[in-house]
Amino acid sequence: MRVATARVEDAEALTDLHLDVWDEAYGSLVDPAILRERRERRTERVASWRTIIGAGSSANLLAWDGDRLVGFSSTGNGRDPGEGLPPLELMAL
């Protein structure tokens, strides 16, 4: 297992994993049309990940098993700043 910082060229693998984990986690909880629509917008999602990674607005770590992406995390500035709350937020795992 290798953990590395996401690169712009990882956007397609990250998009595919993100879509897969949504299907697995939410498949029995949401309307199947929502998951289909997410997959239909794959090209937009790849572009979005490229932008996010390229901008450096969040820290994105990827877990690789050989050449297969098996996990990721995204952290960034907290979206709900408040007294006693940490300035960092785990946005995806």
UniProtKB/TrEMBL annotation:
It comes from the Bacteria. SUPFAM superfamilies: Acyl-CoA N-acyltransferases (Nat). Residues 73-93 are annotated as: Disordered. This is GNAT family N-acetyltransferase.
